[in-house]
C-alpha cells in the first residue's frame, strides 16, 4: 500500500483560506469514509483535526473542514492564523491497514 | 485526561530487536471501544502506521512490516509493547503510541514520541 499523495507545500496570508488535497485509490480514500487529518508542529506529536472525512473533534476550531470526492480528500483551513503554520497529514483506513499521506507544510505568509 | 507515554532504549544496534512500551494512564487499556497502535516517523519524513492491538490480544499490522513486528498487551499494567526485529538504519525514527478507533484512521490520543536510533 503506497502513501497517499499530498502537495509538499501550501501557503496563504492571515485571514485567507488554504486547501490541501490527499489523493489515494479506490482501496483506501475512495473505498471508505474514514479519512482523518492531523496537524503536527515541529517536535510535537500529531494532533487529530478531522476524522471520518468531515467531523471535528471537540476543541478543534470550525475554521478546519474536510471533504472527499472520489479518491481525493481535502482539508480546508479558513481564516488562516499564525498558529496554523504546521505540517498536515491525511490518513485513510484501507481494510485492515492504515495509510498516511506524504505530508504538506502549510506556511502562513 | 487520557495520557500515553512511550519508554525504551534510544539506541539499538543493527540486526538487533527494537523494544518499546507504551503506558496508558487516565483510562483503561481494556476499553472495548478502542485499539492501541504504534506509528513511526523517520527524521524529516512522514508518518507510517506500524500496527495496532486490542485488549484481547487481537492484532493487525502494516503488511510492509508484518514479518518483523510483534505487538503485545499487558492489561494488568495498562501497557502495550512493540518489538521490531532485525533493525537497520532505515528503522531510525520517532516512535509514537496512540489510541486507535478500530476500522478507521482515527488516532485520537498520542504519546509524545520517543526517538530510536539504529547505529553500531
How does this structure look, described?
The complex is a heterodimer of chains A (109) and B (120). In chain A, strand 5 (64-69) and strand 6 form a beta hairpin. In chain A, the strands form two sheets. In chain A, strands 1, 3, 4, 7, 8 and 9 form a six-stranded mixed beta sheet that branches. In chain A, strands 2-6-5 form a three-stranded antiparallel beta sheet, with no helix packed on it. With 109 residues, chain A is mainly β. Chain A has strands spanning 9-12, 18-23, 35-40, 47-50, 64-69, 72-77, 86-93, 98-100, 104-108. With 120 residues, chain B is mainly β. In chain B, strand 5 and strand 6 (59-61) form a beta hairpin. Chain B starts with a strand and ends with a strand.
C-alpha termini separation of chain A:
35 Å
Shape of chain B: globular
Terminal-residue CA separation of chain B: 39 Å
β-sheet strand percentage of chain B = over 45%
Average pLDDT of chain B: 96
Low-confidence stretches of chain B: none
The level of helicity of chain A is: under 10%
| Cα-based radius of gyration of chain B, to the nearest Å | 13 Å
Sheet of most strands of chain A? 6 strands, mixed
Category from helices, strands and their pairing of chain A: mainly beta
> How would you spell out the order of helices and strands of chain B?
EEEEEEEEEEE
Tell me the number of strands of chain A: 9
Amino acid at each position: 500500500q503506497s502513501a497517499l499523495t499530498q502537495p509538499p507545500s501550501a501557503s496563504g496570508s492571515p485571514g485567507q483560506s488554504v486547501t490541501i488535497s490527499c489523493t489515494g485509490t479506490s482501496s483506501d480514500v475512495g473505498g471508505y469514509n474514514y479519512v482523518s487529518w492531523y496537524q503536527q508542529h515541529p517536535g510535537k506529536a500529531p494532533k487529530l483535526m478531522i476524522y471520518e472525512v468531515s467531523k471535528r473533534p471537540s476543541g478543534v476550531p470550525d475554521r478546519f473542514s474536510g471533504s472527499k470526492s472520489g479518491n481525493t480528500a481535502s482539508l480546508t483551513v479558513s481564516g488562516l492564523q499564525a498558529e496554523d503554520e504546521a505540517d498536515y497529514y491525511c490518513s485513510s483506513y484501507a481494510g485492515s491497514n492504515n495509510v498516511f499521506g506524504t505530508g504538506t507544510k502549510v506556511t502562513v505568509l | 485526561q487520557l495520557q500515553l507515554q512511550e519508554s525504551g532504549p534510544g539506541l539499538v544496534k543493527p540486526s538487533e530487536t527494537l523494544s518499546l512500551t507504551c503506558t496508558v494512564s487516565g483510562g483503561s487499556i481494556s476499553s472495548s471501544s478502542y485499539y492501541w497502535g504504534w506509528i513511526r516517523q523517520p527524521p524529516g519524513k512522514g508518518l507510517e502506521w506500524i500496527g495496532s492491538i486490542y485488549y484481547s490480544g487481537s492484532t493487525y499490522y502494516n503488511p510492509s512490516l508484518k514479518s518483523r513486528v510483534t505487538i503485545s498487551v499487558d492489561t494488568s499494567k495498562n501497557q502495550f509493547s512493540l518489538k521490531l526485529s532485525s533493525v537497520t538504519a532505515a528503522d531510525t525514527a520517532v516512535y509514537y503510541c496512540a489510541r486507535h478507533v478500530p476500522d478507521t484512521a482515527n488516532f485520537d490520543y498520542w504519546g509524545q514520541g520517543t526517538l530510536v536510533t539504529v547505529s553500531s
